[in-house]
Amino acid sequence: MKPINTLLTILFISLLSSPSWSVTLGDLVERDGLYYEKFTDAPFTGEVTGNPQGSYKNGKEEGAWISYHVNGQLAYKGNFKNGKEEGAWISYHYNGQLAYKGNFKNGKEEGAWISYHVNGQLFSKGNYKNGKKGGAWVSYNSDGTVDKEYAGTFKDGVKISD
């Protein structure tokens, strides 16, 4: 009888000391811009598995994140800092074609950005400053013709000339 009690005690202790069950985005709820595990009142800190994958710190996205389309193709990868996109981001269409790449600063587009249509044709190319278009932008329809609405020279996000 003593070996069974010892075995049960070891099993119980190992269960208590094992890492917690994995958390998916579906296990979290958003309240006032923060994420919580369901039925808790403390902002979530920890890893999220499944799709997407990443980490939360005090209820906000933090560090590297990655997501996949349902067909298994990479959808996006990038970093968060205090719940906002930060640094280099890259996104792909469901067919594996590059959708866009660029940088974020404090959750806003910053610097050079380039984006493509699902067929691989260039969609747009230009620069952002504090989340607003600035300087010369080129933009094309999926058939390669110029999209005059989105091409031209911009200042603080407003088109000032063709």
Question: Which descriptors apply to this entry?
Answer:
two-stranded antiparallel ribbon, mainly beta, 162 residues, single chain
Summarize the model shown.
The chain has one domain (2-161).
Report on the architecture of this protein.
It is a single chain. This protein is mainly beta and 162 residues long. It has one domain (2-161). The chain contains one helix and 13 strands; from the N terminus they run H-E-E-E-E-E-E-E-E-E-E-E-E-E. It has one helix at residues 2-17, and strands at 28-31, 34-37, 46-48, 53-57, 60-68, 74-81, 84-92, 98-105, 108-116, 122-129, 132-139, 152-155, 158-161. The strands form two sheets. An eleven-stranded antiparallel β-sheet has the order 3-4-5-6-7-8-9-10-11-12-13, with no helix packed on it. It has a two-stranded antiparallel sheet with strand order 1-2. Strand 8 and strand 9 form a beta hairpin. 12% of the residues are buried. Residues 14-19 have low confidence and may be disordered.
Structural class: mainly beta
The helix-strand sequence is HEEEEEEEEEEEEE
The total of beta strands comes to 13
Major sheet characteristics: 11 strands, antiparallel
Instruction: Give Rg in angstroms.
Output: 23 Å
Tally of structural domains: 1
Helical content band: under 10%
The tally of helices reads: 1
Average pLDDT, all residues: 91
Report the uncertain regions.
14-19
